[in-house]
Q: What sequence folds into this?
């Protein structure tokens, strides 16, 4: 089991869930929650889920890991809508400066 391969699969899983990597955005998952249902029967899946949880926490999201209920298969899902974007600030120019 390769850590780098598990990281690649964790990033692909997050991209499929709609939480793909963003350019220069650190806390873009605020208000969203990653639910990981893991029975710990497969150590590779557990490692992928652990890496995905670290990525989501680093990007400002919440993580919940729980055991599956009877008859439930292990899976991951993203809860919560996209975070609200702040309104853009009005650009003000300094008096006496020219725009080139």
A:
């Amino acid at each position: 089991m390769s850590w780098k391969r598990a990281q690649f699969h964790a990033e692909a899983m997050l991209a499929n869930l709609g939480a793909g990597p963003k350019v220069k955005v650190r806390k873009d998952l605020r208000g969203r929650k990653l639910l990981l249902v893991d029975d710990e029967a497969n150590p590779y899946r557990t490692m992928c889920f652990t890496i995905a949880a670290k990525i989501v926490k680093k990007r400002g999201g919440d993580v919940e890991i729980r055991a599956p209920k009877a008859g439930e298969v292990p899976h991951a899902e993203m809860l919560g809508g996209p975070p609200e974007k702040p309104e853009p600030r009005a650009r003000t120019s300094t008096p006496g400066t020219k725009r080139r």
User: Anything to note?
Assistant: The chain has one domain: 3-79. The first strand starts at residue 33 and ends at 37.
